[in-house]
UniProtKB/TrEMBL annotation:
Transmembrane segments: none annotated. This is Putative amino acid racemase. Residues 7-225 form the Alanine racemase N-terminal domain. The keyword Isomerase applies.
Amino acid sequence: MAYLTLDRKKLKTNYDYLNKLFKSNGIEWAIVTKMLCGYEPYIKEVLNLGIKEVCDARISNLRKIKEMAPDVETVYIKPPAKRAIGDIVKYADASFNTEFHTIKLLSEEAGRQGKVHKVIIMIELGDLREGVMGDHLMDFYESVFELPNIEVTGIGSNLNCLHGVMPSHDKFIQLSLYKQLIEAKFNRKIPWVTGGTSVVIPLIDLHQLPAGVNHFRVGETLYFGTDLVHQTIFEGMEHDVLRLYAEIIEITEKPVVPIGTMEANPSGETYEINEEDYGRTTHRCILDVGLLDINSDYLIPEDKTFEFVGASSDMLVLDIDDNDQGYKVGDLIPFDLKYMGALTLLNSSYIGKRVI
């Protein structure tokens, strides 16, 4: 059975790196756990790091976190759905918002539960996912400030999540100015400007992050050590906190060219034959993991001689040429992962999960 590992020591190394970086720059930060898909043993490892604030986009995950660590502040990091308001107020201390009607419902529900619910207003900076448009911002805030049981604790933004718009000094100056304008007009203090995500971290070392941005929420770089701007690994961080091990279930020397009449496979793909491959054979290696669990585009094999041939729902096929490495049935093949690959594996009930 294929399985995923989380390396406790490497996770701690990455946490310490980020914690030192943020503290030395006067920045507070939270860990984003949505990639862990509510898997409690992995969430426990994150909570054991000592983080005080956790962000997630699934209410069921926040409920587990609150049950495991009631004192940790939980943040729901997408605009709430109307039918989920009760659970959001119950399990999230704060939520990201862009719609006045939704915040009004949160206010009413917080009153029923005897709570004050914190909100962070997300502002559109160009990536065109969630966010209030800048020219509507003052009217929006004026309405929100009048609601009972609601505390506006920050403004925020997301970049690079939908259209790939990259963060920049100018965009964060704009975000910081919005905060200053709101505070000046309404005589209200906005504690946090939460503009920072994994893709923003490189701006710190480049001294391009305005001082007004004082809060980050980080997932990908914690788990993969990734500098998302330069597509490298930060020096001193670990890239393989998470790793997949898939078992070889068949190795056979087979023709390179399929035999018979060919049409599209179940994934809708058609195979194009290279005439030079007629008569050639190669060793095909089949692993016990498939498209139901992960797309091979998100797998990074430790053995760079592997060539991905294709995949079906439950099996992945590799070309290992002459098998000079001496692989045999039953061997475990390790893979590093990209973020979206780890996400799908953690969401799969067919993949084993271990802490090492």
